[in-house]
Amino acid sequence: QVQLVQSGAEVKKPGASVKVSCKPRGYTFTDYYIHWVRQAPGQGLEWMGRINPDSGDTNYARKFQGRVTMNTDTSGSTAYLDLSRLSSDDTGVYFCARGGISDCDYWGQGTLVTVSS
Amino acid sequence: DIQMTQSPSSLSASVGDRVTITCRASQSVGIFLNWYQQKPGKAPNLLIYGASSLQTGVPSRFSGSGSGTDFTLTISTLEREDFATYYCQQSYSTLWTFGRGTRVELK
Fold first, then answer.
1. pLDDT score of B76
2. Pairwise CB contact (< 8 Å): A107 & B101
3. Pairwise CB contact (< 8 Å): A102 & B32
């Protein structure tokens, strides 16, 4: 059964960086994209970008370019989201999701990132 | 970037009602349009992909239609577990985008 297990909640200070992990289970890691989606408190879903675990190719939403890095550890079958220069606007829940051809069919449980001084 | 506009932003309905949510893209997305349901504190759940294909395990009271720029999600007979927020999402562009969501509340 497909599952994506994310790392635990994080509290960071403004200006710091955060790294969130996502470990899929139940399928071949390199067969599907991993997408990252953010949700600020009480707000909607915001697509951040995706990575092809097979090639390492990435696509980032314009809003996050220069501040986001997505990578994978294929030996450990884990995907990572790195977001730098955090501000209070980055507070929210970060989801990873398995990307099919054109949709996200399985999602992680979400990781709460709180940015506060 | 392709902008996705959902309407209404919220609606009140009763169990048994027929509910329709619309999504409009700022440019044609073909049928690369998906619908997700999200309940508070939970991850989104894929309902409809390719504008009109029902994801495995999703009840048949959910249906999707449309192509190009205008799309619709319909819940034929609203059940209690359907009170949630619904999002459309385009995957036509390399850079995906979501609509801002439609909250379906109990009247």
1. 98
2. no
3. yes
